[in-house]
Please model this.
Amino acid sequence: MPNRLKLFFHQHIVPHRLLSWITHLLMHAKRFPFRDSLVSFMIRRHSVNVEEALYPDYTDRNIHPTINSFFVRALKPEARPIVAGDDKLCSPADGTVSQIGVINDGKIFQAKGHSFSLLELLGGSAEHAQAFSNGHFATIYLSPSDYHRVHMPYAGTLQQMIHIPGKLLSVAPFLIDNVPDLFARNERVVSLFETSIGPMAVVLVGAINVGSIETVWAGEVTPPSRTDVSSKTYTGTDALTLQKGDEMGRFNMGSTVIILFAQDAVLWSKTLTADDKIKMGAEIGTVGQA
Model:
């Protein structure tokens, strides 16, 4: 299929939300014909390392009552060591580094020839965008074979969570390379934290077949999807402090995590570049000149 036709098909023909709704139903169904055979096929198809799982027996209905419960499985503690040191940042997820660098003039680099708006990514809040003006970003793509939980790249206290409705376009590399503003168009959940080095944002980006996005403090945020931007502020008894490496959210299937820091707050590892594979907990940078 020619690239132009392929792009048109993915953006305008594929029923993204319907397919994602069906996926959510199937992944969360407790009674599903040929369930074990399907999970076994998916393990082989995506080369999932089952031995890393805390409970690797996917046929055990007490531990894994649904297909989704296996794909958001916990790992053995030793499987993902968290880089030590208060001056070190860790990867929030398993995946592939899509892009990493500096936010320039309110734009975040997506792929060759494409950038997207920091303001739009954060739901149109000029105040939030200003906090990360000329700051730092890292975009990590999670494939279906990767560990599906998202962890804190640095210790912080939750300030606000924002759910921003949008499309559910695929975040596969072909679409990232060719669809402008992809991450600012898709549905996403933005979590804003205050840290010892300033503000930090962790953005969980939805995509086709990502049947749900969850956070540890709010549970399943989507579905159902909303038609307007919604937010909740966390103060007082609702305040939540999470340490580096603590779980903060999860995806139903693979998708994308974008982390943001303020100007001069961090220094990304010089050896880390686009297309590098990375594991949750591995060092991705150090504290900069906050």
Notes: The chain has a mean pLDDT of 88.
